[in-house]
Design goal:
With about 45 residues, the chain is mainly α. It contains two helices and no strands. It is elongated.
Length: about 45
């Protein structure tokens, strides 16, 4: 692979993508936290 300069637009897009992926990972981690009683309430509403 040749050593070339990355255009500024590509740099901005890469930085933006990194931020979006970080936020998505954090949201996934937050959603995996177990909150007691939530599952029980959801199942009682669906029946």
């Amino acid at each position: 692979m040749k050593n070339t300069l990355i255009p500024i637009r590509d740099k901005i897009l890469l930085r933006h993508r990194a931020i979006v992926e970080t936020v998505n990972d954090e949201l996934k981690n937050i959603s995996q936290i177990d909150i007691p009683g939530i599952d029980q309430n959801i199942t009682s509403l669906s029946t």
